[in-house]
Amino acid sequence: MTTKCPPQKSPTPFFNNSCWYVKIKGEKITVASGTKEEKDLYKQKIKFPAPDRVQVALAEILNRRKVQSGTASADEVQVRYLAELKIKDMRQEGKTAKAIENTARYLDHFLKTFPGCRVSDLKPLAVKGWACGETWKSKHTRQRAMKSIQSVLNFGVDASLIPANPIKSKICRLPSGDKKDFLMSDAEIQELREHKNKAFSLCWRMMIACGCRPGELWRATAADVITENGATIIFYKSSKTGGQRKIYFPKAEQEVLRELAVANPVG
Fold first, then answer.
1. Over pLDDT 90: what percentage of the chain?
2. Which of 4, 106, 156, 167 has the fewest beta carbons under 10 Å from its own?
3. Cβ atoms within 10 A of the Cβ of 106, count?
């Protein structure tokens, strides 16, 4: 005959001076900061129960400890724990402070919308409703918000903490952001043409003449400048298709390219 061990009780939070604490195996752990009202009650020696926000914070702490100990199942992993790991990983990878700040901002809003949420609780429609809510005004911002939570869940899969991303669904694909057209005045164009940096002015002139990309000009060498049927061409190997793209230039710019190729035969 086997005897089942009774389930362990969750530790009870207690308030002391200015914060909520809990004791786990003799260790005193801070759970949450106290509010002004709670501090006043404590000074008056009035007993009061832990509010929901403290219970949620405690559940997240217990979940984190359980996952770290390796005793939690995939269904028990909370989104907050994965979010913390993702931000830590971004710092270790040397991501910019701005990128980390933006990702953290989206994740913080998500975690406030779904407090104490486990990965197994996530539903595509609910997450899409959050991303398309009133908080995010533009399509671009909504996409960024959705990508932030997707990146956390994909990170969890890569780290073998969860078996799959539960919102990797067509439902969560959002429309692309609105493209903004920027039209320059004749005066602005002329100002760029007369820029004191000659290399910049030349690059600008070439882009206006043929519509090529800045990187295509900067990476071009004398070997890329070829005359075909009387027209000077730059062959550019596209990174998207792996093929070659031809860029044609007007006659005036053709002459400039030929002169540059002669003056710089190896660059």
1. 32
2. 4
3. 23
Q: What distance in Å separates the CA atoms of residue 151 and residue 212, rounded to the nearest whole number?
A: 33
Q: What is the rounded CA–CA span in Å between residue 20 and residue 248?
A: 70
pTM of the model: 0.52
Between CA 34 and CA 52 the distance in angstroms is: 13
- The pLDDT value recorded for residue 239 is 54
226 token code pair: 């070829």
Q: How many Å apart are CA 84 and CA 101, to the nearest integer?
A: 13
Longest dimension (CA), the chain: 96
Tokens 């953290």 identify what position? 104
CA distance 121 to 198: 59
- Angle made by CA atoms 60, 71, 165, in degrees to the nearest 5: 65
Whether the per-residue pLDDT at 10 is higher than 80: the answer is no
3-state secondary structure of 131: helix
CB atoms within 10 A of CB 109: 17
The pLDDT value given to residue 8: 54
DSSP state of 235: E
**Torsion angles phi and psi, residue 225, rounded to 5:** -90, 110
Q: Which of 89, 110, 111 is nearest to 100 (CA)?
A: 89
Which has more pLDDT, 225 or 35? Answer: 35
**242 conformational bin, left if phi > 0, alpha if psi -120 to 50, beta if neither:** left
What lies within 8 Å, CB to CB, of 80 at 6+ separation is: 60, 63, 64, 111, 116, 117
